[in-house]
């Protein structure tokens, strides 16, 4: 296949593949983990729906594969989980490794327009075009993954990624969910720093990549969205997440079919994700026809 | 309480407490994580049964708390999980930090008799006497933890710990289970190195701390044991685990009530543990009257 298999690990009756491939979008090697549930690993292979999980700041595909517990429900319901990489890595860009909330640790899943990131940090193109084409078109992986049934979820920066890619691409994903998403990045410090660095100073450009802003112009009505936020999450308390803004924008836009749950005392960690990952897999399964 | 609370983290409807206390057995600070299920956190508090999880080489209480997912079934069934520390740490002993399979990374849960470990590496005393007394006698924790209903489990070196502490202390634990346990340490490189270092050269002394050897003199008949081993586990293939020796000894001793499951393709990692942790919690729950 076009991917190099670094490891194949038995997990919950299925297997987790740790893969890498060369990305033309970024010009770098990109890692991606794919969990195949037992329902796919039949003879002949069976195509199963796919849930994409976008990770948060500082993460790699490894963190949620190990600590998110999505495989538990995915194995029961027969979903594959795809854990993409979080940014281009292994290239020398000034400043890209200096902070936890910008550069290699924090692509924000957009296509950068500003030097030195433009032409390399093309994560939106990578996630919406190159990676799906590579996975679904692969001679081996394509036998297990159904390109017609894909949903998306993510955590923190990855929650921002999931919500924005969903809103920007009507019909591409069957549903969306998010754990503690950065819901209104144009109005929080993390988002302001990232968008200024990747997109420049024009705040109107930033709005094209902000889930709360995108709601006003969204063509659909039924959002098919589940969002969980922990009330003990320090980043929520610091105003980095702003889910209330997303809720207000959804109400103003007349959007329905979404649930934002404030989970008492939960923090921003994988302890929070693992507690509610069954629910998020079930949410996706419902819209993926399982 | 006698413990210092380093963190209290919401998890699966309950909470995970990260605690430390000063141990008189070891003369050091010891960490211990305690997961309290929602069933305990009522008003007034409810005493719930306890499952002790002993970790493997190089681990701390953190690894399994984050990646083992015992909390999932424990929250459903109403068990507390206690994740003890794996060795005395923070003291300067020559050689104790040099290798991954001896010293700080690998106490083997015994009381050392050889210098420089004697008098400090008293893990058996710590686990069977001091830690339970501290937990159950604590004004706060004691309201949640039932001293009359305790089972034990563990992984790799912790599987050895669980099996040997169970066999040495009839009636102390309601049941035992193990993930990929070092089942016959007197006959594998890990065990030989550890026992020589902690116990000296007398191999008859070693046998007192070997689950396979202990079976011959065990007073019970119904072992109430569940053991899982992955057939893709490199340490199993290298002869570090030797579960077949344990099975043969159990058969020879006329012991019943145990199941050793060889799980196809599973490795030695937390991917393996998390896949089967529901089963091990259910095994304990059955014998703890839940």
From TrEMBL, chains A, B:
Catalytic activity: S-formylglutathione + H2O = formate + glutathione + H(+)
InterPro entries xref list: AB_hydrolase_fold, Esterase-like, S-formylglutathione_hydrol
Residues the record marks as active site: 156 (charge relay system), 233 (charge relay system), 268 (charge relay system)
A single BP term in Gene Ontology: formaldehyde catabolic process
GO annotation, cellular component aspect: cytosol
Alphabetically ordered keywords of this record: Cytoplasm, Hydrolase, Serine esterase
Any Pfam family matching the protein: Esterase
EC number(s) per entry: 3.1.2.12
Subcellular location per the Swiss-Prot or TrEMBL entry: Cytoplasm
Classification via Gene3D superfamilies: alpha/beta hydrolase (3.40.50.1820)
GO MF term (any one): S-formylglutathione hydrolase activity
NCBIfam families: fghA_ester_D
Biological role stated in the UniProt entry: Serine hydrolase involved in the detoxification of formaldehyde.
PANTHER family named among the record's database cross-references: S-FORMYLGLUTATHIONE HYDROLASE (PTHR10061)
Annotated family: Belongs to the esterase D family.
Protein name (record): S-formylglutathione hydrolase
Organism: Lasiosphaeris hirsuta
């Amino acid at each position: 296949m076009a991917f190099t298999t670094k490891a194949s690990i038995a997990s919950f009756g299925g297997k987790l593949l740790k893969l890498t491939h060369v990305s033309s979008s970024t010009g770098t090697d990109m890692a991606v983990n794919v969990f195949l549930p037992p329902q796919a690993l039949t003879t002949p292979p069976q195509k199963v729906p796919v849930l994409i999980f976008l990770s948060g700041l500082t993460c790699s595909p490894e963190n949620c594969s190990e600590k998110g517990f999505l495989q538990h429900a995915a194995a029961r319901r027969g979903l594959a989980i795809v854990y993409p990489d979080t940014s281009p890595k292994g290239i020398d860009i000034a400043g890209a490794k200096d902070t936890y909330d910008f550069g290699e640790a924090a692509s924000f899943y957009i296509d950068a327009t500003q030097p030195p990131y433009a032409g390399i940090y093309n994560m939106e193109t990578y996630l919406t075009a190159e990676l799906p084409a590579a996975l679904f078109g692969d001679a081996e992986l394509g036998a297990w993954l159904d390109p017609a049934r894909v949903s998306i979820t993510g955590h923190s920066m990855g929650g921002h990624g999931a919500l924005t890619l969903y809103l920007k691409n009507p019909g591409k994903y069957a549903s969306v969910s998010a754990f503690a998403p950065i819901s209104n990045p144009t109005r929080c410090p993390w988002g302001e720093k990232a968008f200024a660095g990747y997109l420049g100073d024009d705040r109107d450009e930033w709005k094209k990549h902000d889930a709360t802003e995108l709601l006003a112009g969204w063509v659909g009505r039924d959002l098919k969205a589940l969002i969980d936020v922990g009330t003990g999450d320090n980043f929520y308390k610091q105003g980095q997440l702003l889910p209330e803004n997303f809720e207000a924008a959804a109400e103003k836009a007349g959007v329905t079919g979404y649930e934002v749950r404030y989970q008492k005392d939960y923090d921003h960690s994988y302890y929070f994700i693992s507690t509610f990952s069954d629910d998020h897999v079930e949410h996706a399964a419902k819209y993926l026809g399982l």
